[in-house]
Amino acid sequence: MDRVAARQKAQALVSQMTIEEAVEQLSYQAPAIPRLGVPSYNWWNESLHGVARAGAATMFPQSIGMAAAFSPDQMKEMGEICAEEGRAKYNAAQRAGDHDIYKGLTFWSPNVNIFRDPRWGRGQETLGEDPELTSRLGCAFVEGLQGDGETMKAAACAKHFAVHSGPEDLRHEFNAVASPKDMEETYLPAFRALVQEAKVESVMGAYNRTNGELCCASPTLQAILRSWGYEGHFLSDCWAIRDFHEHHHVTDNAMQSAAEAINNGCDLNCGCTYEHSLLAAVQAGLVKPETVFASAVRLFTTRYLLGVMGEGSEYDSIPYTVIESEAHLAAAERAARRSCVLLKNDGLLPLDPGALRTVGVIGPNADSRCALTGNYHGTASRYITVQEGIQDALKGKARVLCSEGCHLYLDKLSDLSQFPDDRLSEAVAVAENSDAVVLVVGMDETLEGEQGDTGNQYASADKRDLLLPPCQRRLMDAVLAVGKPTVIVLMAGSAIDLAEAGEKANAILLAWYPGAQGGKAVADLLFGEASPSGKLPVTFYRNSQLDEMPDFTDYALKGRTYRYFEGEPLYPFGYGLTYGDTKVTAAKAAPEENGWRVEATVRNGGARFTEDVVQVYVQNEGSPNAPLHPRLCAFQRVALGVGEEKTVTLRVRADSVLVVDETGARRAEGQPVLYVGMNQPDTRSRALTGHESVRVKL
Is 237 a catalytic residue? Predict the structure, then answer.
């Protein structure tokens, strides 16, 4: 069913409703209307990296890890699997008459906010700090989730519109101030791409205000959204409308808040303000009945597009058995391998199982299931931690000694221990008796995440600094002091500075939150069954550089993200090593309709098969409005055997080489120059990889 037909059906249905019935349909828990044959429907469902909060489901790496693979194809595959498993769950729930939360087909994903500050706890939910990467990956996910069938397979949601990235503890009252340039250049592109290219079905507003206007009731943001041709529905973040009067103090009471929201384009309320106060607002003359009916039409248009109004769809026969199928689990495991980023390797990796008698596995995240999952996750039927993955890989080959080493953040593991660091001596003993050590440290959703999910002892769900908790730092120092060959496996959803430990370790593998079976993927990489190929979707800063950055509450881009950071990062955006040695040996560009066709010759001069990512950056030389550093404009994964050479074709869109001036206008300015390589064309990347990007003048 196309949108025109769905809208006509919605209009015909809504025209038969009373104002009371229509108001009820604008809450996320929409009740049935028996006299009209309308079934009840709960709009709230999640699928950030697999169907979430609804029991068993295939669990992919957390979004930031998926972004590290730089693979739209992989993102689309994840979206397709989310839709497939979501339909299977929906079908089973419908047969049981279960219409509760997390049982519907409207998934409030993806999060395409820009990860502008490394302290933001929810940054792990995003696709990184770059608008181009976020746009390409976000579009692919939406296309996979919504499908291209006669019926929409599931409905995606672009969130949180449009300027939202912490601090978490201020989000309910904060005003994010962003210049026209930063809006057009950084904060809006991904939302525009998801609307215009991927035809995303819904958009969610943010808790905060943007430039003084409530994001869930912003005339300016609504005008921008609808100017893009957006035809879907708009919803509030959960209980955000209540914030209007309780925290923002823009309105005086719930009735005024309900009116403010719906009069400024918010169709659906995740929360209870519409449920309790919208009808009163209509009766008081604050809201016109036709405004309510218009929102109801948009919502029922979505329901008709999904085929959930009793008419059926081609997806009704999807069986429950597709959930965690062999093919789906294999896709998640493949994604986990591709997501890991090799930050350092002095030659220790890959480890040779045949040369090892004993391997020590140490650290609070070594055997942690929580460190596999990130937030907004489902429940897997089986988990493989890093420790278990290593044990499985070395079974019958080498002994594995284990120690938790320390708590994730407390000074001791046992309340009865007299002294802190009560597992430190055990960890040192394990290291002393091992030929090589795998030290697994980092964070989990109890230390970084969304406000209110679990919270932490530092700063709501955000980080105060880029260091690991003191107990983990003491553990790393003690284990590294033993002097055995040591690889650090870092599990986190954001930039972490390992400080001296990072300098002393022989290798560092960033595993993010790799999904339910991520431990197997990590083991495959450590022992050379696959080559790491992930690239950083965010800049890794040194902890000391936080003092040089703008305040966390400052939404200006100057001084942050790779495009505007003035210092030398610890590890740059786009960086990641492999076990091969790939580089671009030649590149050329030719104009074509709507952009340029770039051909890059790539060669693997290393001794191992590997995958890698060709990256194209553009700089407008001589332009006063160009970002400080070249910006990503195209990328593509490539697989290369030993000594193999390939020519890869990439496409750079015409608007990618325009710059944005202070008024927010895009314009042709300066001399556009492309840099084609396997990483960003900065001095730090060159120092870490030994490779230069090829320069191509357009």
Answer: yes
Q: How high is the pLDDT of residue 161? A: 98
Catalytic residue (one of 117, 182, 237, 367):
237
pLDDT in tens, 205-247: 999 999 999 999 999 999 999 999 999 999 999 999 999 999 9
Tokens of 627: 């970002």
Give the number of C-alpha atoms closer than 13 A to the C-alpha of residue 244, restricted to the C-beta side: 28
Query: Residue 435 pLDDT more than 60?
Result: yes
Identify the sign of the CA torsion 530, 535, 536, 540.
Answer: positive
Listed residue (696, 698, 697, 668) closest to 591, CA to CA: 698
CA-to-CA dists, residue 530 to 201, 520, 612, angstroms: 38, 11, 12
Helix (H) or strand (E) holding 136: helix 131-146
Q: Are 549 and 662 in contact (CB under 8 A)?
A: no
pLDDT in tens, 237-262: 999 999 999 999 999 999 999 999 99
DSSP state of 118: T
Cβ contact 110:48 at 8 Å:
yes
Give the homologous superfamily in CATH for domain 340-538: Glycoside hydrolase family 3 C-terminal domain (3.40.50.1700)
What is the radius of gyration, based on Cα positions, of the chain?
A: 25
- CB within 8 Å of 6: residues ≥ 6 apart: 301, 302, 304, 305
The owner of tokens 């809450």 is 27
Q: Are 621 and 641 in contact (CB under 8 A)?
A: no
Element (H, E) at 678: none
d(CA 659, CA 656): 8
> Can you name the residues that pair with 640 across neighbouring β-strands?
610
| Residues in contact with 395: Cβ distance below 8 Å, sequence separation at least 6, in sequence order | none
Instruction: For residue 156, give every residue at least 6 positions away whose Cβ sits within 8 Å of its Cβ, in sequence order, or none.
Output: 79, 107, 109, 110, 141, 142, 145, 146, 194, 198, 200, 201, 202
DSSP string for residues in 366-429: TT-SHHHH-SS--B-S----HHHHHHHHTTTT-EEEEE--S-SSSS-S-TT-SSS-TTHHHHHH
Domain boundaries, the chain: 3-322, 340-538, 582-697
Assign domain 3-322 to its CATH superfamily: Glycoside hydrolase, family 3, N-terminal domain (3.20.20.300)
How far apart are alpha carbons 539 and 346 in whole angstroms?
A: 22
Where would I find the H helices in 247-288?
254-263, 273-283
Alpha-carbon distances of 149 from 144, 154, 170, 307, 347, rounded to whole Å: 11, 11, 42, 11, 49
User: How would you classify the pairing of strands 157-161 and 209-210?
Assistant: unpaired
Residue type at position 153: K
Question: What is the dihedral sign for C-alpha 362, 368, 373, 379?
Answer: positive
What does the mean pLDDT of the chain come to?
97
Residue 410, exposed/middle/buried by CB under 10 A (0-12, 13-18, 19+)?
middle
Q: CA 505 to CA 495: how far, in whole Å?
A: 18
The DSSP bridge pattern shows strands 209-210 and 175-176 to be parallel
> 582-697 belongs to which CATH class?
mainly beta
Query: What mean pLDDT do residues 85-113 have?
Result: 98
Give the mean pLDDT of 47-70.
Answer: 97
